[in-house]
Write a structure and sequence with these properties.
about 190 residues; alpha/beta; Hect, E3 ligase catalytic fold; 2 domains; two-stranded antiparallel sheet; about 10% strand
């Protein structure tokens, strides 16, 4: 085991409430810049140069991490059929009216572009891409909530892979509200 000073003279400085933020930042930077006590600067510069050979540096600095990931990796390929099989409904679908709502929901997703399907996946589960196993082992839930007005947009509980939907009155309303929610509410905490 080896010890490295995160800040100059760090062995003699006690970490207090006053300076802990500085130590945490120093630890984070050290973790990103050092591996086994060796600087990764040469490797990082080589990776940056290679990336800038493909994507101009001016463009690279303007991309968000998600945009860069999509540019490099492309959009995830989502199988709507597999997604449907990995989804349960609350309450359980027992009436023709409930079956119709489920049909409207999947009809909308099937008609979404790949980009909008990816936004829905992110909105619903906080995934930018599916795990290598796809939907296997994932348990998505759709909860049709009669307490929500049809004026409400869908809401997601990403930790539980749960999507709450009002009982919309038509396929068009379902698609429009869902699309609006994923396009405005999948980029962090918002009021969508």
């Amino acid at each position: 085991m080896a010890e490295y000073e995160l800040v100059s003279g760090g062995r003699q400085i006690a970490v207090t409430d006053h300076n802990r933020k500085h130590f945490v930042q120093s630890y984070a930077w050290n973790s990103m810049e050092m591996v086994h006590g060796e600087s990764i600067e040469v490797v990082a510069q080589a990776a940056r140069k290679g990336l800038c050979d493909v994507i101009p540096a001016e463009l690279l600095s303007s991309l968000s991490p998600v945009d860069l990931e999509r540019l490099v990796c492309g959009l995830p390929k989502i199988s709507v059929e597999a997604w449907k099989k990995a989804t349960i409904y609350e309450p359980k679908v027992t009436t023709p009216e409930e079956e119709r709502r489920v049909e409207w929901f999947w009809e909308a997703i099937t008609q979404f572009s790949s980009a909008d399907q990816a936004l829905l996946l992110h909105f619903w589960a906080a995934y930018t891409h599916l795990p290598h196993s796809g939907f296997e082992g994932l348990n998505f839930k759709v909860r049709f909530d009669e307490k929500l007005s049809t004026d409400h947009l869908p809401m997601a509980q990403t930790c539980f892979l749960t999507l709450k939907l009002p009982k919309y009155a038509s396929a068009e309303q379902t698609a429009a509200r869902l699309l609006h929610a994923v396009r405005t509410g999948s980029s962090g905490f918002g009021f969508a």
